[in-house]
Amino acid sequence: MKQSDPQTQPLLRRGCTGAFVNQAGERINLRVSTSVNSIHNIDSANNCFDCDFTLALSWDDPKVAKDGTKVKGTYITLGPDSVDYNYRPDVFIVNDVTSDNDKNLVAEEIYVTNSERGTVVNTRRMRGTFTTNFMYHSFPFDMHTLKVQFYFHPCYDLKGPIESIKTNWWGDHVNNEFDMDGVVHEEFEHKVSPDSGITFETYAFEVKVIRKYSSYLVNIGALVEGMFALGLAVLMLETDELNDRINLTLVIVLAYSAFKMMVAGMVPALGYMTILDRWIMWGFWLNCGAGLLSMATVYLELDDKMANQMNWFYGLSSLLAWAAMHARLIYHFGFFTRRKFIKDMKKD
Questions:
Q1: Cα–Cα distance between 103 and 101 in angstroms, integer?
Q2: Which stretches of the chain score pLDDT less than 50?
Q3: Are 151 and 218 found together in one domain?
Q4: What's the number of CA atoms in the CB half-sphere (13 Å) around residue 159?
Q5: Rg of the chain in Å (alpha carbons)
Q6: Could you tell me which of 275, 326, 343 has the C-alpha nearest to residue 136?
């Protein structure tokens, strides 16, 4: 983690008073850790999720250091008689939907961990709805990173996590729609505002999630496979029975269209196609091709031998194209990418 130079901070000159610097004219050292209680209501259609977590902040308070009665593990109040309230950090959340930041705390407490230095730990249980960017190229094998981002006033200098508190799950990480990483990752960074030149201390914790795809394969994928097989039955009808061929083709095409509209309702409006979209559209166009071949056979007045050869050739080509689609889309961009993502999760 790169350290920023206090002299370059417009608000951190040694002559500053109040909460901008400590008594020695230096930035206030701050450590941050998080216990994630739960992540729920993952609304991928609206690019947001709900999170309940406990944020722990630790710093050295001069009032606590002067008070000899405070011992390690002692819980104290946030009033001016116990701690210097100016040292209590304001928490700003970057991707909070309601922009409440730390105004609506569920619970808050503070306790002493080192009475000589005056080190205190302030824990704040918070919850809210947070925005994130969901990417659906590999849906229903999609993988996402759910992140909660904070920033602190430049008077603080983030020093990393609290020694005695490790950022991790506090509750059970269980979700009906997604599998969640068992490790909570955190980031500390100094970011410089391009306009003001002020360096803000930023902190974030994130959880990687992967969608459970089994229900999509059973409820949609298996039916699409069945419709593709039935679509090839068009090629088994007599070549001069155009009416029967077109009727069967239309039934299959309408079924594909219904599935396509259902899948479109599962995700937000996208400017690209997901794996499930392409899966359905491959079957749609291959089945349409069988109907067009039937029309061409009648229009060109091909004899039975030539028509059967054309049917056989198109049927074989459709099977090969269907198999190639599975190998490229479902395995390579679906299972393979998902497996690599899980390996990276375990590696981290």
A1: 6
A2: 1-19
A3: no
A4: 13
A5: 30
A6: 275
Under a CB-based contact definition with an 8 Å cutoff, are residues 328 and 282 in contact?
Answer: no
Tokens of 282: 């491959």
At CA 216, angle to CA 184 and CA 207, rounded to 5? 5
Among 188, 211, 234, residue at a domain's last position = 211
Amino acid, single-letter form, for residue 51: C
| 7 residue type, one letter | Q
Distance from C-alpha of 146 to C-alpha of 302, rounded to nearest angstrom: 59
Based on the structure, what is the number of domains in the chain?
2
**pLDDT per residue over 281-339, tens digit each?**
999 999 999 888 888 888 888 888 888 888 899 989 999 999 988 888 877 776 777 77
Question: Phi and psi (nearest 5°) for 132?
Answer: -155, 165
CA distance 270 to 274: 9
From the list 178, 217, 201, 242, the residue with the least C-alpha distance to 330 is 217
pTM, two decimal places? 0.77
The answer to whether residues 157 and 222 belong to one domain is: no
Question: Cα(244)–Cα(227) distance, rounded to whole angstroms?
Answer: 17
For residue 25, the model assigns a pLDDT of 62
Residue 109: helix, strand or coil by DSSP?
A: strand
Identify the domain containing residue 254 by its residue range: 214-347
**For residue 300, what pLDDT is reported?**
83
Positive or negative CA dihedral for 87, 126, 158, 77?
A: positive
179 and 55 together in one domain: yes
Confirm if 346 and 185 have CB atoms less than 8 A apart: no
Amino acid identity at 60:
D
The confidence score (pLDDT) of residue 20 equals 52
* Judgement on whether residues 189 and 299 belong to the same structural domain of the protein: no
For 73: left if phi > 0, alpha if psi spans -120 to 50, otherwise beta; the answer is: left
CATH of the domain at 127: 2.70.170.10
Q: What CATH number corresponds to the domain at position 269? A: 1.20.58.390
Q: Residue 341: what pLDDT?
A: 67
pLDDT at res. 348: 55
Helix%, strand%, coil% for the chain, nearest 5:
35, 25, 35
